[in-house]
Amino acid sequence: MTSTTEQLSATTLLRFATAGSVDDGKSTLVGRLLHDSKSVLEDQLEAVERVSADRGQNTPDLALLTDGLRAEREQGITIDVAYRYFATARRRFILADTPGHVQYTRNMVTGASTAELAVVLVDARNGVVEQTRRHAAVAALLRVPHVVLAVNKMDLVGYEESVFAAIAEEFTAYASELGVPEITAIPISALAGDNVVEPSAHMDWYGGPTVLEHLETVPVSHDLTACPARFPVQYVIRPQTAEHPDYRGYAGQIASGVLRVGEPVTVLPSGRTSVIEGIDALGESVDIAWAPQSVTVRLKDDIDISRGDLIAPTATAPATTQDVEATVCHVADQPLTVGARVLLKHTTRTVKAIVKEIPSRLTLDDLSQHPEPGRLVANDIGRVVVRTAEPLALDAYADSRRTGSFLLIDPQDGTTLAAGMAGESFASRAEAAPAADDEGWDF
């Protein structure tokens, strides 16, 4: 009989991302997780077995379960994160499968932006490489609370504990310096199945959890209601019908926190105040709503509100600013330069902006800061100062991953240039350079 604890845990959801350098065995690990957790359809497994046999392999090549996605990436798709859904008796999972090539590091930003855990693979023969450090930096930057170091291909190094220990020590020291709060190192062989779902008979020196066991038991803390309430307005509803002649509502998804009828609120960036008169959810009036529900909010006063405005409780409303200091991961092929005119998209609001400064670029080898690089190119991580044409109600990314993040967009063709985290920086970064003179700027 299933215990009450197991019944409750089965309702929890863990979002996690996988990352690793080329040929570290990420596809095999994903395939092994899906296969050994009984999450592969019979016809899919039969197809893999058939192709593997045609190639002269004695056992199914589980990496083939994701090969179709890898082929798509090789055709030039620049941002392609594949999401896999599977479940065990203890928990449900959404796996963001990201590619391993250096030029696709930006994909990890997409996959890890909503993840609570990242699995970083390392080939036991190669140890920690630049791409490993880059993935650790992205995980730290995005404040992913749990990181698993999966030291793969232990079968090719004789299952030696000393090899695993050296890699785990190097990675843990590096990731800890970046500020990663929790690191779990697990020695595995995805090909043989060692410590992926079942414990390995070849590594009796390891007494920790398997990859799946850790995924099933790691604490999941994504309670958006614990943060201050933020409601970005997506659409203004004014039916102006005979039945509802005076109806005026503001529709959107609650990004964080809880909204209550009768609560004083402030509309940003205008700063005007009112009181929540009503909340409509799924066609019915409710007294309370919470993230991430989609609702329509009605206010007591008739205020000029449009898409992109932010409604927040007056007591915890964020400050507005036109000078955004942030760390960004540059994701476009075209460089980001000082003086570039861009669009900044924050929740439902998009405003014109200028890149005033690029104070530093992170050097992944030793976590030092390269001062005043002048520009950022694809996959670079650096500090920027952006001046916006209109005020923004930004939270610090450390306080809210949803309302503290933004995108920089090319105004000419709509290309995403960079993903930004407001206020974020690494502990080892150099002192910020002095602000540039505003003279000569249009806004």
What does this structure look like?
This protein is of the alpha+beta class. It has 3 domains: 4-222, P-loop containing nucleotide triphosphate hydrolases (Rossmann fold, 3-Layer(aba) Sandwich); 225-316, Elongation Factor Tu (Ef-tu), domain 3 (Beta Barrel); 321-422, Elongation Factor Tu (Ef-tu), domain 3, CATH 2.40.30. Helix content is 19%, strand content 33%. The protein has 8 helices and 25 strands. The protein has helices at residues 4-9, 26-36, 42-54, 67-74, 105-112, 130-141, 161-178, 211-217; strands at 13-20, 82-87, 92-97, 117-123, 146-152, 183-187, 231-232, 235-237, 249-253, 258-260, 264-268, 272-281, 284-286, 288-290, 294-299, 310-313, 321-330, 336-337, 341-346, 349-362, 369-371, 375-376, 381-392, 405-409, 416-422. Strands 7, 8, 9, 11, 12, 13, 15 and 16 form an 8-stranded antiparallel sheet that branches. A hairpin with a 2-residue loop joins strand 19 (341-346) and strand 20 (349-362). The longest helix has 18 residues, at 161-178. The chain is globular and about 75 Å long. Mean pLDDT is 84; it is low at 1-10, 69-79 and 427-443.
